[in-house]
Amino acid sequence: MFSKYMTSLLIFCLLLRYLQSFSQKVYNNSLEMSKVCQVTGKRPISGNNVSHSNHRTKRKFCPNLQKKKFYIPEEDRWITLKVSTAGMRTINKNGITSVLKKAKSDGLIVL
Questions:
Q1: Contact between 39 and 91 (Cβ < 8 Å)
Q2: Structural domains in the chain?
Q3: What pLDDT does residue 19 have?
């Protein structure tokens, strides 16, 4: 009886661990917490905080990401992208259709 209980408990724990690996939310075909621009591919880089005494401590420089809706007139629909402010300027300069085509060919976005 005790071994049957332990076996079922072990199976439950393994199943719980397996399901927790899929518990992250997916946002527009990318993980919600990822800090990567879907247009330019900018991602966090590491560097140092430098104090007045020149003491250095590690830190991250994160891109300025914004969730923004863009209208695609060719498809007559709206899409939500997580883009950096530099990516917004690229979209304003080149147009949303050409930027999406390039991002898709670079593998930054899946539509």
A1: yes
A2: 26-44+61-111 (2.30.170.40)
A3: 62
